[in-house]
Amino acid sequence: MAKIEGIRISNYRGFREFECHFGETNFICLIGRGDSGKSTILDSIDKALSSQWNLVFHDTDFHNGNLEKPIELEVSVYNVPEELLLDEKFGLYIRFLAKTGEILDDPLAKETDGSTKLLTIRLSVDKSLEPKWCVISKRPYQEDKEISSKDRAKLSIFSITDYVDRHFSWSKGNPLYSLVPKNAGQGADERPLLDALREAKRKIDNSDFSDLDEPLKKVIATAKGFGIDIKDASTTIDFRDLTVNEGKVSLHSGSTPFRLKGKGSKRLISLAIQSELTNNGGTILIDELEQGLEPDRAQHLAQSLKCNSNTQSIITTHSRDVIVELDATDIFRVKKGQGSLFRLDKQLQGVLRSNPEAFFCKSVIVCEGVTEVGLCRALNQSRISINKPNSAFLGVRFADGHGSEMVEYANAFNAAGYRTCLYCDSDEPNVQEKKTAVEALGITVIDCEYGLSFEKQLFKDLEWQGIKKLLKYRIEELDQQGVENSLQAVENSLQAKCNITLNDNWMDNESIELRSAIGEVAGSKKWFKRVDHGEFAGKICLIDENIPSSTGFGKILSKLSSWIDND
Question: What pLDDT sits at residue 165?
Fold first, then answer.
């Protein structure tokens, strides 16, 4: 069954013009800030390929209320059922997806050349608000051809929403009923009416529902794979109201209708039903996958969908628990006001595992390592203490660049449409050229003075009372052997550079040489290579006000704060 290659949206809700292509991607996760358009993309696919013929549109669906330009929702699909590709159907409208990703309308393009057959379906709505569906091509002089709701139903596109109660009924038109063999259920007796409702229930409960057993078993098995146990499911009458019709024959857990289950469970069961319908191919659309689910169930569901090679899944999420289970290349970022999607680069896989929250922000500061992340956290706390906005409120996150990978991370975030800043040391000469290239791409670089690491810059600029606080903090963190080793390393550095020996009251004897030796040892001994250690150092600078604003380190803190504010 059909899968989605791409979509074009014109004049619909938040999109004036939008186009994206997924290629032959089987699992697609859309992320983005609120009101960026994620749900509209899913809704556009759902409507363009809907099996309904009477969809309702309103004036407010037109972008900025512009009724003079029609809504156009175009979706290109592959793996189309062969019966729709016959000449008498839409065979003359076949397009081709080349290996290069280009869509070709040339009828001479051959599938044997490595290209894939496509159909492009367009839903258009003008100010009359009447929807019209047709199959289109871009060949000259070829008119569009109408496609019926019956033919659109053959594409097997399903959507999981909050309104899934009807999915648990065996009535015609519902997904569950579609699992019933075509020759089953014929000749059933007409149900008794109002005054015989209880008798009707008894008769139905005693009836032979064997025609429904096999599809129900499939749903039970698939639901178990998604992490929900419904082995007690049965088919009986639902007393939602006093009328009796085929919609009353529905799934129950014991005597309780499935429609009374929790939101998360209902969505999972609906997904299980529709997964069975797409077992041989098709697409499932899920808005906010994590809705109603505990983190572990959301993670399990994401993994299950990703591993299902038969069904294409297009989901949206705001959950770190979901994206941390995915590959970076599974994720497409939607940015408000942009006419396309940003696909994450595989280079971001490390950040995705260590700091998934960063992908839901507007702006990201890529920190060289955990020390710098800790300092940024302290900076944020300092901002809050003086009534400046929390960085999270402004949509800014701090991401660990894992040292040598920081430049590549910054480039990848920038390419994905994030406002990006790189905060790093300047003690590695081979990185300086890369930083220049990064700046040329529009990324802000905030770094230490040339030749200095975080530690060397810190101990060069920090007031002496602040240095003593940091030394006391580190000494308390170490055992006696660690303290002795660190002090010996400081003395060795002093002796090598200026032949100075530490005396008993060395902490009270400030000097440039001692500052330099401490900074060097702090770096080599990794005194602050933990987020909490970097955060403590930042608090000494900011909250205890031990760093002059005129120093190199003071300027770093000022630049970082200004960048956070400058959206």
Answer: 63
Calculate the alpha carbon distances from 215 to 182, 186, 233, 261 in Å.
12, 17, 12, 21
Grouped pLDDT means (10 residues each) for the chain, 567 residues = 94 97 95 94 96 92 96 97 95 90 76 80 97 92 93 90 64 66 48 47 66 86 87 74 55 77 77 72 91 91 91 95 95 94 93 92 96 96 94 95 93 95 91 90 96 94 90 74 66 64 72 84 86 94 89 96 92
Number of structural domains (the chain) is 3
Residue 545 belongs to domain spanning: 354-567
Q: Are residues 418 and 333 in the same domain?
A: no
Considering only CA atoms, give the Rg of the chain. Answer: 31
- 413 and 542, same structural domain? yes
Nearest to 45 by CA among 144, 155, 188: 155
Do 340 and 363 have their domain in common?
no
Whether the Cβ atoms of residue 405 and residue 431 lie closer than 8 Å to each other? no
Task: Examine the domain organization and report whether 307 and 210 are in the same domain.
Answer: no
Cβ partners under 8 Å of residue 291, min gap 6:
162, 263, 264, 267
**pLDDT of the residue at 261:** 76
* pLDDT for the residue numbered 463: 93
> What integer pLDDT is reported at residue 194 of this predicted model?
40
What amino acid is encoded at 96 in this protein?
Answer: F
pLDDT at 360: 95
**For residue 46, what is the domain's CATH number?**
3.40.50.300
Q: Is residue 349 part of a domain?
A: no
Q: What is the DSSP string of 185-219?
A: TTTPPPPP-GGGHHHHHHHHHTS--HHHHHHHHHH
Are both 172 and 46 inside the same structural domain?
A: no
CA–CA separation, 535 and 403 (whole Å) = 18
| 358 part of a folded domain | yes
Asked if residue 315 and residue 270 are part of one domain, the reply reads no
Residue 400 structure tokens? 């660990």
Do 541 and 462 share a structural domain?
A: yes
With respect to residue 223, please indicate whether it lies within any of the assigned structural domains.
yes
151-161: burial string, b at 16+ Cβ within 10 Å, e else: bbebbbbbbbb
Amino acid occupying residue 560: L
- CA 168 – CA 222 distance, rounded (Å): 15
Burial class (CB in 10 A: 0-12, 13-18, 19+), 225: middle
Residues 303 and 413 occupy one common structural domain: no
Buried-state track 289-309, b at ≥16 Cβ within 10 A, e below 16: bbbbbeeebbbbbbebbbebe
Is the separation of the CB atoms in 277 and 306 below 8 Å? no
Is 162 domain-assigned?
Answer: no
